[in-house]
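Example 3.2
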Amino acid sequence: MVAAIIPFGVTAGVAGLDAGLSAELTMGLSVVVFAGASQLAALQLIDAEAASILVWVTALLINLRMLMYSAHLAPHFQYLPLRWRAPMAYLLTDQAYALTVPRLMADDPPPANHWFYLGVALPLWVVWQLATAFGFWAGTALPPSWELGFIVPLIFLALLMPAVRTRPSAVAAAVGGSGSVLGQALPAGLGLTLGALAGIAAGVLAEQWWRHD
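Structure, written as tokens:
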């Protein structure tokens, strides 16, 4: 899993440079947010000169799943003091959750689960920051004609395609992608946001249609 996040971290660094952010701002975003999908989405919106509120709302919506992860993990770590739980919450990722839950849900959970969690989460954090820094450096070191910014949409496509497994998800992807392209001339990055909302609505309607068909 550590190796798998390196390309995404590098992409986040390239996206920061492509969006016109400095090295300090790119790394600051990576440290504060520490969430790959929302970072890339936020950087795409910043690059599109979207309104700040759209950047905030988009990042928050993408990260809502962390609330469910936290709610599931909290009972298992409620005995820990706040000085433990606060950094553990900050380090929460999909990977850390996925690897820790089977251990917690065992019939006879082993001790020291908080150390196990940190053993999973901390390497991911360190590698993510290093990969982001390398991506930004690589973007500045390579010729501008290489146009490394194209990596960002390719990464999103790589994330999207495995998720398109049903007809409603295909409808959502088609409508959302088409809406974003058609609305790219709209100010404040509204085309990307409206396209995403249209895709979600289309997917929900398509699911209801085929469910009752």
